[in-house]
Amino acid sequence: MKRLTQQKVETMVRERGLKLTPQRQAIVEFLQGCMNHPTADEIFVAVNERFPMTSRATVYNTLNWLKNAGQVLEVFEGGVARFDPNLDPHYHFVCRACGSVEDIDLDSIGPLPHCTLPGRQTVESFDITMRGLCAKCAPRPTVSVIL
Amino acid sequence: MKRLTQQKVETMVRERGLKLTPQRQAIVEFLQGCMNHPTADEIFVAVNERFPMTSRATVYNTLNWLKNAGQVLEVFEGGVARFDPNLDPHYHFVCRACGSVEDIDLDSIGPLPHCTLPGRQTVESFDITMRGLCAKCAPRPTVSVIL
DNA sequence: TCCAGATTTAGACTTAATCTAATTTCACTA
DNA sequence: TAGTGAAATTAGATTAAGTCTAAATCTGGA
Fold it and tell me: What pTM, to 2 d.p., does this model score?
């Protein structure tokens, strides 16, 4: 289970001659403890509870820095960016009722078949977003899906 | 091959007591002829070449109206909304070099297997976005992909 | 042609995100 | 432990996508 860790961030900071500020640590710690997919603004609010003077610019700078270093994933949902500390390959499920975004393990939907694209595109990665009702919002536990 | 048509729009307009204005027609005609996935702004610019006084509000209103009527799909890519007149079920391919968005037919990547979600989510639909290099940007015609 | 209601328009407003310039802070070295 | 210089932070200005508003204008049926 790969995931954003304080340790990885510290190593990265040392290697690149960067600085480990309390704001960065607070952002990293918040993301580490996150099981949902917070927006930049949610992170801004959470970090300001600990460091009341933290500016949006710092939050955005740090998120972009973590993103470029591959330490968080940026997930766009409905036009707003959300940030995901889960670094294992995975998909997303978005509830149409409550808007929550959940991670779906790669292996929980089974192996996908080999395939070939006829348009001569070189596929390097892909995202899958499933939509529907989450367990809380679903009226009954329908589970099977045809992909 | 399902696709946005002027005829469907006319029928819809009649049924709901709405009005078929030249601006709406221009937007629909532009989308019909589109094989890429224009942004609202690209549609705004194109429509203004024919109707120079068309406002952004009209473009957004019409796009939302078509979207809610299921006549166009809204595709978010990199945080900006793009509009897709292709109503057949399909996936998308985004080129990381030129940013173009191409449609990928459902059947061109073969049937996907049945699967079950363990989290009790009810999956109603899903989007797949593949990323890589398109045929124009790819250095050589690598075609095979492991999904 | 008339008319009511739908639509359009320009521009103000909102929200997410980036940029800027001045100030502050980190972390290394002596 | 103090000094130093680069890196980072800050508040606020700016940009861009999209929504809202109120007044003016059109559409299409009678």
Answer: 0.86
